[in-house]
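This part of the workshop introduces the protein records we will be handling. A record pairs a protein's sequence with a compact description of its fold. Backbone structure tokens are a discrete shorthand for how the chain folds in space. The question running through the whole workshop is how a given chain folds. The record below serves as our worked example for the rest of this section.
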Amino acid sequence: MHLFVLYMSERGEVIVRFDTVSFEHGSTKPILDEVGFTVRRGSKITLMGQNGAGKSTLFSLITRASEPEDGVIQIAPNLSVAIARQVIPREQLELSVREFFERSFKEKVYDIDPRIDDILEVVNLHADKEKRVKEFSGGQQARLLLASALIQKPDLLLLDEPTNNLDKEGIAHLEKFLIDYKKTVIVISHDADFLNAFTQGVLYLDIFTRKVEQYVGNYKDVVRDITARVEKERRKNAQAEKIIKEKKDKANFFANKGGNMRMVAKRMRESAAEAEESKVDVRREDKTIRPFTIDMRERPIGEILHINSVLVMKDNKPQERAAEVSLMKNRHLLLTGPNGIGKSTLLERLANNTEEGAIIASGVNVGYYRQDFSTLNFDETVYKTLESAMPKPDEHYMRSVAAGFLITADIMYSKVGDLSEGQKGLVAFAQLVLLKPNLLILDEPTNHINFRHLPIIAEALDEYEGAMILVSHVPEFVNQIRIDETLDLETLKPLKKGKK
């Protein structure tokens, strides 16, 4: 049985209620099991959970894009809901900015241009309304996604990883907006500092129990309380285990005495059983990926990549800038610059060896992690995707690497396109391990990834012995990685005519 019911509410009252809601992805993968929680008008809520737990699915249930298998979802009457998803659908990348915003409304809006101008100012983005969405950088597309939700002026705003691809200025701008926003917001994000700026409560989707736990307080307070509760439960269970062992040992001792001592032994066993029942189910921590190493298939001698000029975007026009970079093995380059300057485009051209001012040495094996995962074939199974990365098939090794990235047997035969964005990221990292590249090119590798995995990924990149180019807007992540050189595209000088 499934049903959506309108639920009456006033300001500050419940506007969304999940009552024993269950949901499965397909017919074999349970996501929610009799989940219950409420959302009050005007609240700022964080939705937490491990990659693949079903956070985005929860959003699709609230927006009615999906329906539950069982239970009741109650929504306040006339409640308008808008969602800013993690990525712009591929079929919308060819749209103009105007066409993209027109898709935000069910009916035609005749004064759409001034509305677009106003909302782009809110998200701090200057954009030609005739420009194609695919021509914007990842950070600019993130702002377009946010603006497409805000232009609807919703009562309930759902944000799915809104800080992905945003630079420091963009994140600060979004933080201020959410602090000042008077309506209800639910946010999925792995950025702890960002969440703590505005969060008033947390919904935690447990991938193991498939339940939602509800907490009141800011993000860091809730995480601290959860950690304290887990530790308290562990201590209680440890004490119970000690009592159980003592009672069982005594029961065995008295049982061997015979006679009246057998009654004493029986009472001891009953006491041990009571202690067993007093144990509590400790809330399991999110699983983390195993430590891993990205090896090189061959160890090149000499220069791997040379750059003497790059194309950047300035005032929406390409400009050639002078650069002097020579990457040997075991050299790590950080590429920086504001959203829209062309970092992702440059990385793509470098990975494809089509940047006129750069040369990759012959025979270099390039590993390219792209922020939108477009290097992955979404119609292919995970198994085929990983198998194709290896120079020669080795199923045992492939499955071992996959398991280290939490890619279980049931995921291996799923299509890549059916995975969550976080799971796609883990598949992409597993692919790099199997590929064993000499040159590693990474475009925002923290996007969509559970924060528990990031220190392990940072350690692997820090220890990588090949040449590496990294783009990341997350200072905490970058600070954990050895960086030998930084190339700031904003400060590069124009290339003098006649020089290449």
Q: What stands out?
A: The two ends are 68 Å apart (CA to CA). The chain has three domains: 3-222, 228-278, 305-488. DSSP finds 15 helices and 18 strands in the chain.
